[in-house]
Amino acid sequence: MLSKDEEISVGDSDLEVRREDQDKINKFSRLHQKEQALEEDLKTRSKDKEDLEELSSELELADEDEKVPYKIGDTFIRLPVSEVQELLAGSTERIDKAVSGIEDRMSTIREDMDQLKVQLYARFGKSINLET
Question: Rounded to whole angstroms, how far apart are CA atoms 3 and 12?
Fold first, then answer.
């Protein structure tokens, strides 16, 4: 919400929004939406990783000769504990790689958003709000 003085200064500025300005605003919006989607994906994958680590800890307590159910697709297959632990380690590694990729993309998106913020705030000052 703008203060009375800010509203007056905004009204006086009457800056024309050029096509290139609108393109930058639209690009910022798209990047912000991508960032939010990636953050959701990151939360989901982090939760999956925690679950796998918890499951691995539980399997350490299991008897080595025991067979435990392991879900592959829609089917549960009973496998030896050691084999399930290897499969879980592989899944955890894949999640780590995916998380790393997501974090890299988010970093790139944030850099692009920061550049757009600088350009748009330089042009419009307080009359535009790009805080997320």
Answer: 14
Residue 131 lies in a domain: no
Look-up: residue for tokens 């997501």?
102
Answer whether residue 107 is part of any domain. Answer: yes
pTM of full prediction above 0.90: no
Counting Cα atoms < 13 Å in the Cβ hemisphere of 44 gives 8
Q: Indicate the SS3 state at residue 123.
A: helix
Query: pLDDT tens, 63-99?
Result: 888 899 988 889 999 999 999 999 999 999 999 999 9
Look at residues 31, 38, 28 and name the one whose alpha carbon lies nearest to residue 100: 38
* DSSP letters for 29-62: HHHHHHHHHHHHHHHHHHHHHHHHHHHHHHHHTS
Domain span holding position 114: 19-61+90-126
